[in-house]
């Protein structure tokens, strides 16, 4: 009897050992199924994380591109502002005397009209000589500032330099040529400050 019990105990222990060493097929399948499901979940999670990271990268790249564009626009605006300021300063320096010269032109016109008067006696001649000296001094001072008279008579009519107030027939000149100057025109360096008032041949 004791021998039979010992054999039964040994058989149970052997069966338990074999189960531990060799799991049943259903348990292996169950464990394998759980592993594949876990792997799929991990893969999906990794894909979601990658997609989220790519989305953030795209947003950051967009912001960076926008900031670069804004910087380039600001830089271009600043360059334009600096160039425009420099040109305005240079123009102001170049034509600084224009306002004064414009105010003096009627005085030159009056001098020229007065100098065309014929003197009848020595006193008048003396006065005209004094006026001519003042006129020449004024003209020289204006030349130093870059003022010059616009050439007119005998020149082709140029609307940028001449103001036509009348057209006449004159066989001595080609058509569209200035035949007479009614009022002198002047330039300050390369800028016309008053066009010449002229008659033009037809």
From TrEMBL:
Signal peptide: none annotated. Residues 1-48 are annotated as: Disordered. Keywords: Chaperone, Cytoplasm, Stress response. It is found in: Cytoplasm. CDD domains: GrpE. InterPro entries: GrpE, GrpE_CC, GrpE_head. Residues 7-18 have a biased composition (Low complexity). Residues 19-35 have a biased composition (Basic and acidic residues). The keyword Acetylation does not apply. GO terms for biological process: protein folding. This is Protein GrpE. It comes from Thermaerobacillus caldiproteolyticus. The lineage of its organism: Bacteria, Bacillati, Bacillota, Bacilli, Bacillales. The gene is grpE.
């Amino acid at each position: 009897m004791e021998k039979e019990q010992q054999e039964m105990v040994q058989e149970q222990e052997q069966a338990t050992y074999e189960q531990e060493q060799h799991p049943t097929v259903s348990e292996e399948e169950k464990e394998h199924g759980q592993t594949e499901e876990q792997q799929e979940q991990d893969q999906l999670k990794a894909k979601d994380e990658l997609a989220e990271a790519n989305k953030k990268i795209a947003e950051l790249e967009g912001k960076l591109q926008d900031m670069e564009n804004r910087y380039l626009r600001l830089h271009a605006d600043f360059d334009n502002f600096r160039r425009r300021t420099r040109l305005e300063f240079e123009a102001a320096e170049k034509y600084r005397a224009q306002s004064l010269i414009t105010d003096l032109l009627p005085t030159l016109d009056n001098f020229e009209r007065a100098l065309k008067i014929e003197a009848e006696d020595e006193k008048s001649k003396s006065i005209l000589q004094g006026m001519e000296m003042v006129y020449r001094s004024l003209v020289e001072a204006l030349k130093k500032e870059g003022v010059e008279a616009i050439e007119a008579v005998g020149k082709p009519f140029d609307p940028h330099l001449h103001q036509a107030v009348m057209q006449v027939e004159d066989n001595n000149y080609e058509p569209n040529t200035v035949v007479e100057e009614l009022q002198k025109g002047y330039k300050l360096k390369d800028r016309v400050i008053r066009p010449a008032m002229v008659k033009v041949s037809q």
